[in-house]
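### Sample
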Amino acid sequence: MTSNTPNSGEPFVPTKLIKHFQANHTTRDAQTSGWSALWDSQQNDLWDRGKPSPALIDLIESAPWPSREQRRPKALVPGCGKGYDVVMLALHGFDVYGLDVSPTGVETARAYAAKQLDAPLAHNYGEGNREKYPKDQRGEVTFMAGDFFKRDWEGKCVREGETFEGFDLIYDYTFLCALLPEMRRDWGRRMGELLGPQPAKLVCLEFPLYKDLKLPGPPWALREGIYYDVLAGGGTGVFDNDEAAQSALQRPNKGPLERVARIRPSRTYPQGEGTDHLGIWQVKSW
């Protein structure tokens, strides 16, 4: 008996999101059109969480985020959706770039950001912390329509006369799990290209850790060992059982990044309560 939700005890029933991709968007080349079609038909509620990540908020508010050259730290949120995490990070002093494949999604995010940056809701902050982040210290927000795996959008992330040197923070929540498993190795390679030198960090909210690896997506099931295999082990991150995924943690560090922490957040979205973890990565020390 397999399930789509933790401890449900119910047979797996494909969701509307899974049926959409199984019907017309099963190949890598069709992934972009699959997500864009959902945005254009106003079906983004199939994955919308309605607020920024509580786990990321708590991490950001736990200590000042390091940056370079006496400037605001620069962050990237690939697959940014409506822009919840992009706006939250800007309110906490980051210059933030939200990337999405859908022009409709980008326009939706821009509209959301315009309202929130003017009058932010309490869900952008930890309890009692709102006054610690005054308006005059907020960063800038830039939304871009583009393909994460291509480089043509990188020029929009630098000021005139600058060269692209990577991001101080990259946040991945439901981006990796939205990709076909065969795309995971390229995801890891691209993260290595986009992340700046130490102390820059890639933060992954690992989700869904509870789902059976044999079940279809999106979201595709993930495990600690999948992240490790791709980012540190230099592997494909494709496994069909928990034992194989767990064994990947023993691989030598041949990938582009190294893990510096893995924690269970005290707050997260309801969908991942009890299973979500935050994995924190940086460019490997040689």
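The longest strand covers residues 257-263. This sample (Thiol methyltransferase) is used throughout the tutorial notebook.
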